[in-house]
Amino acid sequence: QVQLVESGGGLVQAGGSLRLSCAASGRTFYAGGWFRQAPGKEREFVATISWSGGRTNYADSVKGRFSISRDNANKTLYLQMNSLKAEDTAVYYCAASTRVTTAVASSSQYDYWGQGTQVTVSS
Questions:
Q1: Contact 31, 97 (CB under 8 A)
Q2: Which of 53, 84, 120, 122 is deepest in the core (most CB within 10 A)?
Q3: Residue 104 — very low, low, confident or very high, per pLDDT cuts 50/70/90?
């Protein structure tokens, strides 16, 4: 089992930055990622990262603004969010896969999820 705990969310003005962290415990996981869910919307892919951290995938909406990284020694995922926009407002969830190693974007490939952390961007 993998336990994931997100932190770092909060209220920020448009154009600002936040860094989300996801601390993992339990068994080793492979691919990791971040997904988000805005009010009235379905959960969507944000960014994913391969087991080694060598490959990443980003949603078009965040490409160039967000950066996903991982520290396997500390079992932690990060999401650096820059140039935040109001439309980035959502609950952000980290996810881990014990099944795949590649940076797949499909949420169905991730079998463990954090509780979510709220990110609110004021315009």
A1: yes
A2: 84
A3: very high
